[in-house]
# Entry
Amino acid sequence: MPLIERKLTVKQQAFADFYIELGNATQAYLQAYPNVKKETTASTNGSRMLGNAKVKAYIDERMEQLKSERVADQQEILEYLTAIMRGEHTEETLRGIGEGAQTIDDIDVSAKDRIKAAEMLGKRYAMWTDKQEINANVTPVFIDDISGDSDGS
# Structure
């Protein structure tokens, strides 16, 4: 369910956002409700607020969004490797400018790094795997090497 459909109050959303940031219900409640001065009241009401289904669902959804924003997905990784391979990125390097001073310069990504990106992309698309054709439609042939004698001789 999208965040808009939850209809949290402004204070509930403030509490939830502070809780996500601080990880502490009491402190989040004190931030969202500045007129509350007693920590015991904030602790009790903060716990109650975490029990509210709408607030909990909002917090869970926001945490999932934040988690997915921090982790690169497959498409992002492939696009980044492609850009490196094509030389579309630069990297920073230190360059001495005399008397012990240094400066940071942007240089093209090295051929070694571009090759590594190409290799990683090639592995992703199984370009370096030898393909072997296996024919599984072979009919087995059974050889009857047992004689018809019942006495074993």
Remarks:
- The mean pLDDT is 84.
- The chain has two domains: 3-70, 75-124.
- The chain has six helices and two strands.
